[in-house]
Write a structure and sequence with these properties.
The structure is a homodimer.
Chain A (H helix, E strand, L loop, with lengths): L6 H5 L2 H8 L4 H8 L4 E2 H7 L5 H13 L3 E6 L5 E6 L1 H35 L5
Antiparallel strand pairs in A: 1-3, 2-3
The structure holds a DNA duplex (20 and 20 nucleotides).
Protein name (chains A, B): DNA-binding HxlR family transcriptional regulator
Organism (chains A, B): Amycolatopsis thermophila
GO molecular function, one term (chains A, B): DNA binding
Chain lengths: ~120, ~120
DNA sequence: CAGCATCCCGCGGGATACTG
DNA sequence: CAGTATCCCGCGGGATGCTG
């Protein structure tokens, strides 16, 4: 997404954000991890539908971006905890704005879609 | 992205937002169209790197979601203008928060990445 | 428990060519 | 000018199985 550097992507670092947050599961994980240190299996349960593979990959990505801290307790069986960093917490805060927008307009958008679809399919195709 | 309805996606309409805004070009187009009614070819130039195909597809999607209004002037040659709707304008406003976050922390994130990569590649692999 | 490795498939999206 | 249509490929991500 940030491969081609265009004037717009330069002026618009939103693209960068989306890169960190992209993928089907990043945000879900961030939100799920927001309520405190959380273990791998906890996340696997809370972020419903995620596969073990994608959980691992996404956690690594978030850790690499400095959004998550991974703490390993060398016990048997192993215990690993993930914690949001400060900037990740800020990010989650910021996402609340988006949430509000979505909640506020979800009805409007749904209606717009139906209108559009009805218009484009007048007869019962 | 919103196919499987999980407890989290229910409680977290961010997923919905991202669905409207998903894709490589949606946000770029919204931003480019924010400065007033804009024509197809204008967008093609301003959103650098976009193909005609993806421009069309993304415009249709945004129109369907009620984020963009498409106005056709039946002249020769044809003239088509795209305008942000109110909710799209609100959305763009909201995205500013994300922008700020990105600008504020881009350095930190870049550093985190380098640290992570260095750690995982100690010798000169 | 918390992973990593492998196989596999769908679809987002690029390149290209044609049209009202 | 503003699209549509077709072909094609990479990669995000699901399923499954193995390990320290």
């Amino acid at each position: 997404m940030a491969d081609t550097v265009s004037p717009i992507t330069e002026a618009c670092p939103i693209v960068e954000v989306l890169d960190h947050v992209a993928g089907k599961w990043s945000i879900g994980i961030l939100v799920a991890a927001a309520h405190g240190p959380v273990r791998f299996t906890e996340l696997e349960r809370e972020v419903e539908g995620i596969s073990r593979r994608m959980l691992t990959l996404t956690l690594r990505k978030l850790e690499r971006d400095g959004l998550l801290v991974r703490t390993v307790y060398p016990t048997v069986p192993p215990r690993v905890e993930y914690t949001l960093t400060g900037i990740a917490r800020e990010l989650v805060q910021t996402l609340v704005g988006l949430t509000s927008w979505a909640e506020k307009h979800r009805g409007t958008i749904a209606a717009a879609r139906r209108a559009y679809d009805t218009q484009r399919t007048p007869a019962g195709v």
